[in-house]
Amino acid sequence: MGRNDSKVLVFLWKIKKDLGHEYTHNDLRNWLWKHLLSGQVVPGYGHAVLRKTDPRYECQREFALKHLPDDEMFKLVEALYKVAPDILIEHGKAKNPWPNVDAHSGVLLQHYGMTEMSFYTVLFGVSRALGCLSQLIWDRGLEVMVRRFEQKLGYRKLGRCMSSIVQITPYFLAAGVLCTLVEAVKLNCEEGRQA
User: Fold this and answer.
1) What domain range includes position 181?
2) What is the share, in percent, of the chain residues with pLDDT greater than 70?
3) Are residues 26 and 78 in the same domain?
4) How many CA atoms lie within 13 A of 160 on its CB side?
5) Rg of the Cα trace of the chain?
6) Stated pTM of the model
7) Long-range contacts of 88-95 (CB under 8 A, 24+ apart)
8) What quaternary structure, including any partners, is listed in this protein's UniProt entry (predicted)?
9) Residue 8 and residue 102: Cα distance in Å, rounded?
10) Model confidence over 36-95: pLDDT tens digits?
11) 123/157 same-domain check
12) Do 67 and 12 fall into the same domain?
């Protein structure tokens, strides 16, 4: 959960700086080859588990095609999507040459005015925490427990101990979100001092 979407944006800005607004797929291919042969990677491509295009990327792409088809950065992401996988396959070092969610998320956030890149990871963390928290609320309301797939015991069989854990867990989640926000503010302040 690093700053991968931010790295993708920096990468895209570098391409735009080098190629300008008017570029062909061939220009992009040549630029990518030069980039790869210099020992660098293409951020936003590859995934530790998936061996196909990340479904979250596909959802974001579908959204962008509908709502921001004329955005310059989206056009560049789209051009990369058409060019990069073949180059990465030919290059031979990538286990997964397909785009992941980070290839698109930063562009969408920028388009809708979220320009503070140091907060992107915070948004990711908060969304995860809220998802867990809502699940805990449902589980508490339905009197079921959060459990691993291999566990067979029900909520009531574990008794008071599990009840206490379920009551305390939202506070741990809230504390985790708060810590993430504090870290992001610290990073943002440090980046401001360095600039």
Assistant:
1) 117-194
2) 73
3) yes
4) 0
5) 21
6) 0.69
7) 88/36, 88/42, 88/45, 88/46, 91/33, 91/36, 94/45, 94/46, 95/46, 95/51
8) Homodimer.
9) 7
10) 999 999 999 988 787 889 888 999 999 999 999 999 999 999 999 999 999 999 998 888
11) yes
12) yes
